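User: Just a sanity check before I run the rest of the batch. Below are the structure tokens for the first item. I only need the designed sequence back.
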């Protein structure tokens, strides 16, 4: 009778030793720098960055954008504004992990560059927020006038 450990491996073998051996045998490739396609920083106090899955000088119809320091608060409205455009075939976003403050936004279009679609959606989102702020301010002013 042969003694076996976890997952029916011979007793005394460790998964981390096996993984280390496999990693040593695998060809070593240098990881790609995630800041390689950094589009730019927004603001001075908050380091909000937009990264792309490809060189931003290339016009592509399928891109994954990574928005640092963002979550569902901007992800869902931005996805909605992108999907309203007729040129868009697909748009979705995900938060890879709850403890990470970033979202992955995937956009696919028919022919128009995804960067243009994203910029249009951001402009539309700003307009919608400005409109909501104006409506709110007007309602507050009416309420204050009616209730001195």
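Assistant: Here's the designed sequence for the first item:
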């Amino acid at each position: 009778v042969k003694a076996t450990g976890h997952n029916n491996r011979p007793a005394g073998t460790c998964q981390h030793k096996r993984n280390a051996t496999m990693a040593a045998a695998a060809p070593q490739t240098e990881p790609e720098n995630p800041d390689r396609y950094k589009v730019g920083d927004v603001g001075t106090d908050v380091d909000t960055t937009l990264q792309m899955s490809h060189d931003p000088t290339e016009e592509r119809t399928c891109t994954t954008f990574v928005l640092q320091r963002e979550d569902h608060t901007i992800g869902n409205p931005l996805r909605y504004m992108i999907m309203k455009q007729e040129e868009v075939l697909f748009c979705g976003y995900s938060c890879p992990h709850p403890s990470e403050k970033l979202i992955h936004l995937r956009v696919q279009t028919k022919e128009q560059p995804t960067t243009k679609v994203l910029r249009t959606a951001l402009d539309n989102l700003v307009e919608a927020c400005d409109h909501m702020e104006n409506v709110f301010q007007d309602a507050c002013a009416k309420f204050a006038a009616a209730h001195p």
